[in-house]
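We emphasize that the prediction below concerns an isolated chain of 382 residues; any contacts that depend on oligomerization or on bound cofactors are therefore not represented. The input was used exactly as deposited, without trimming of termini.
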Amino acid sequence: MIPVCELSKCNGCQACLNTCPANAIVPIKDKMDRTAYYIDETTCIHCEKCQAVCQVNNPVSSFTPHFVLAAYSRDSEDKKLSASGGIASVASRTIIEKGGYVVGAACVDQKTQHIMIESTNDISLLRGSKYERSDVSFIFREIKEKLKDNKEVLFTGTPCQVAGLKLYLQSAYENLYTMDLICHGTAPHDYVLDHIRYKTAKSWSHYTFRGKDDFWFCIYSGKAIMYRRQSISDEYFVAYLNGLIFCHNCYNCPYAKKERVADITVGDFWGLDRDSLEKSYDGKISVVLVNTSQGERLWSFFKDKIIFEERTMEEAANEFQTNLNGPSLMHSERKVFERYYPKYGFEKAVRKTKLIKKIHFDYAKHCIISLMSEFKHKLIMA
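Result of the prediction step, given as a token string:
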């Protein structure tokens, strides 16, 4: 077995897996349960197509945004259930209503994976941030078939997944639209699985990080909530938001910059000066970067369903929007996590770090202060 590219740079886009005509690409996990892709020399036909579509070996062009927007959906359900301003939901609904298909990340069969939908009823599956690496599997092949059949397709994902799709296709399609996220980084799926097993022994179906329960980690069994904890006190959430558990390549991500690889970029508009908005709004607002002429075309399809106003790139890339200015930083306790994970798994390894110990201490302090305040209030009322 030989790696398709330098292992420390592989981002798992799976373009090599999709393009190999001999199915000679094999996913293999390392001791940190990070998946990389290898060539099985016993079945390889030496066509080198995997090398041709690998973004580590073939950098993808990026684009300076044509214009920048602060925006949110006019639809009340989008605003309530989406992680940010619901822009991806509006775009998805528009493409489907035009007879097209949408591909995005969903929590299905107890894991996050990219799926293709063609009904507006399924848009709910794609809503909300997924703070782990999504499994693309062979979805690129399905996309290519739809494009060749002259169907419109909207692909949403991380910048590296968009780059992987573009390299796999090897040519531009007028009926393909791409939308990337301002990505903080991705973590291996095994981490969240280990965390869920620790938090609930009961059967479960899916989990969420953002959306209706914004910044709460929730584990569901159907519609019933089995576990619900705020981001500041959930170990997985804390580890993710503090840059402790990303795959190694994420800390050197070449796409964490103002120039983008997708037609449109969306994300939370952190650091937005709301007082300067022409129309006052205290709900969730997205930053939207329209990066290409194809992006402008897509934007024209659904802009009448959005409330928006133009902003500057300087405001969008402010100090709070860190991943438009560079990759996420590796937490200082990462080596501690790496030391314990191979032997003990996620939950025990993450609890060995000072990061989690401090969070537990701060949360306990917060609970005690809250209880004392409530008790004092009851005494006064009595």
